[in-house]
Write a structure and sequence with these properties.
It contains 17 helices and 23 strands. By secondary structure, it is of the alpha/beta class. Bound molecules: dihydroflavine-adenine dinucleotide. Belongs to the flavin monoamine oxidase family.
Length: 452
């Protein structure tokens, strides 16, 4: 057992932990980053599968994500725009395929009117919410007591309108069934991106990618830390008190003045805390759970859909893959499609064999792009649900009533233990931007406390 001493021990080498470590170093504090996996990046993972470079985890950067944009620029990384020339595709309730341009789905005029009306109401409600403190809204308790689905169904009995409005924060973001989270949680998701309209605008929310992959952000941040990043070190025990912390892995004991837990909150219970965390944290942590989505990558010899005048952007609340995009790499002649299968659909697919799953998913993609979609040269499913050190995708959210009840304590330090992760961000919630913001926040709180 090797013993070392640092000012701050950081658990997790994802975007949050590595940002915090770099900020602390800049402020003159010493750090050790302990990472369970054999790589850095956590939910950012760019890998080559069967000769194709794939973004297995997070990849897109949107214009509101200042913290991520600053970091990408500071690290000298280049971005490129998602391909978006041509028509988008929408599959309606009867399975009919419609091509369209713009943000509004090609639905019946009455359904379109309802969608526009509810969107405008949602934008108004979202504008009243502080994403960093949604629980402070005067109606927070009321909005946290009704499910997203139930609230939408109170607005209209037009089922197609409800499904199209629901999926932006449901299948597409929180990746939980819309009866499993509250209106307040949905408003937070939208507020974290600036507005509900921003969230449904694929050209905004899925704007740019990083040339060479987004995992370069944590890779380059880790490079700056050199030997202070320790891989293959799952933290088992964290002793804490007035004198600081002692953090233990199977090989290392690190003593420090402070610790940052920089990983998904669902994993706090993998660590034995001595003494135990306070009652409030025990309760709070049980009300957060991960969503679940399968990110599907299908690579083709050419981006064949472009020849048909299609942008690759496709949506349908009635399809197994509820959304799909052109995800071709920068400067790559081959074409890549990325599709997403969310929540209950993802659970159901994992009861099938790998062959049946692939067949069902490619069948769904073929409804958008035609028969050619059934024959990719490379096919891969990102399954974060079976990753021990993540356990779902994209991130964690509260159960019904949990956000209002426990949100105010989410980011509160417990003695020398601080918390940082995209899953507890306001702006940038569930995104890399939020992870960076939370890393910065934990670091600045520790710098302040260390000077007290
Ligand atoms: P993250 O989970 O990345 O890092 C935590 C680290 O802690 C991990 O490396 C883990 O191994 C480690 N750890 C856990 N327990 C430990 C222990 N006990 N001891 C030691 N180490 C431990 N975002 C975005 O902005 N744009 C996008 O397009 C997408 N798309 C997307 C797709 C998919 C499939 C996923 C899974 C996620 C996204 N996201 C995204 C979300 C984004 O990737 C995510 O919010 C951040 O990367 C999370 O960064 P954190 O550092 O907060 O946690």
């Amino acid at each position: 057992m090797v013993e070392i001493t640092r000012d701050v021990v950081i658990v997790g080498a994802g975007a949050a932990g590595l940002t915090a470590a770099n900020e602390l170093r800049k402020a003159g504090l010493s750090v050790a980053v302990l990472e369970a996996r054999d790589r850095v990046g956590g939910r950012l993972w760019t890998d080559v599968i069967d000769g194709a470079m794939l973004e297995i985890g997070g990849q897109w950067v949107s214009p509101d994500q200042d913290a991520l944009i600053e970091t990408v620029a500071e690290l000298g990384l280049e971005t490129f725009s998602r391909y978006r020339e041509g028509d988008s595709v929408y599959v309606g309730p009867d399975g009919a395929v419609h091509r369209f341009t713009g943000e509004m789905f090609p639905v019946a005029p009455e359904t379109e009117r309802v969608i526009a009306e509810v969107t405008s109401l949602l934008d108004q409600m979202v504008s009243e919410i502080d994403p960093d403190r949604p629980w402070e809204h005067p109606k927070a308790a009321e909005w946290d007591a009704i499910t997203w689905d139930a609230w939408l169904r109170e607005q209209t009995d037009d089922d197609e309108a409800v499904r199209n409005l629901a999926f932006a924060t449901g299948s597409a973001m929180l990746t939980k069934p819309t009866h499993a989270f509250s209106l307040l949680q949905s408003l937070l998701m939208a507020a974290s991106a600036g507005s509900y309209s921003n969230l449904v605008d694929a050209d905004f929310i899925l704007d740019k990618r990083v040339v060479g992959g987004l995992q370069q952000v944590p890779l380059l941040l880790a490079e700056r830390l050199g030997d202070d990043v320790h891989l293959n070190q799952p933290v088992r025990t964290l002793e804490w008190g007035d004198g600081g912390v002692t953090v233990t892995t199977d090989d290392l004991t690190v003593r420090g003045r402070f610790a940052i837990l920089a990983h998904a909150p669902v994993l706090y219970n993998r660590i034995s805390f001595v003494p135990a965390l306070p009652r409030r944290q025990h309760q709070l942590h049980q009300h957060l759970s991960m969503g679940f989505v399968i990110k599907v990558h299908a690579v083709y010899e050419t981006p064949f859909w472009r020849e048909k005048g299609l942008s690759g952007t496709a949506f349908s609340p009635y399809e197994l893959s509820h959304e799909a995009y052109d995800n071709s790499n920068h400067g790559d002649e081959r074409g890549t499609l990325v599709g997403f299968v969310s929540d209950q659909n993802a659970d159901d697919l994992f009861t099938l064999s790998a062959e049946e799953r692939k067949e069902r998913i490619l069948e769904s993609l073929s409804h958008y792009y035609g028969e050619e979609a059934k024959n990719p040269v490379v096919y891969y499913e990102s399954d974060w649900g079976s990753e021990e050190w993540t356990r779902g995708a994209y991130a964690a959210s509260f159960d019904m009533g949990g956000l209002h009840r426990y949100g105010p304590d989410l980011r509160e330090a417990v003695g020398p233990i601080h918390f940082a992760c995209s899953d507890m961000a306001g702006a940038g919630y569930q995104h890399v931007d939020g992870a960076i913001r939370m890393g910065r926040l934990a670091a600045s709180s520790i710098v302040e406390a260390s000077r007290a």
